[in-house]
Amino acid sequence: MHAREQNQSFFRRNLRTILGLAILALTIHDIFGPHGFLAMRRTQLEIKQFSAEMQKLDKENQELSDEVTSLKTDPRMIEKIAREDMGLAKPGEFIFKMPETQDDAGKPAPNKNH
């Protein structure tokens, strides 16, 4: 019984220290652990980044969808592509291609055939 009394005495004397260390360990785990505060913040930032990327891709997808619709239905858009990209002309028209000029920086200037 003497050893049991010593154990009880030890726990009574050091109860505050043991509880303090346990609370400190739990706090550290809650902050730095795999599911702690810092991991949660990192995950929230990743979610914001993915949301921004999704919005950008949704906008790009909508623009492409609008372009596809325009290419299917807008005769002016179809004519523009036929003239500019494919080099086609209406019967009786002539196409004169001008050599590209270079601006001061040495880059080709935009084509001004519009």
Quick description:
It contains three helices and no strands. With 114 residues, it is mainly α. It has a domain at 48-87.
Topology (elements, then pairings):
Elements: H1 2-32, H2 37-73, H3 75-84
Note the main sheet.
none
Report Rg: 36 Å
Question: How many β-strands, per DSSP?
Answer: 0
The pLDDT mean sits at 84
Spans of at least 5 consecutive residues with low confidence? none
Strand content: under 5%
Output the helix-strand order: HHH
Shape: rod-shaped
Helix content: 55-70%
Question: Which key features would you list for this structure?
Answer:
3 helices; about 70% helix; rod-shaped
Protein described:
With 114 residues, this protein is mainly alpha-helical. The protein has a domain of 40 residues. Helix content is 68%, strand content 0%. It contains three helices and no strands. The longest helix has 37 residues. 0% of the residues are buried. The mean pLDDT is 84.
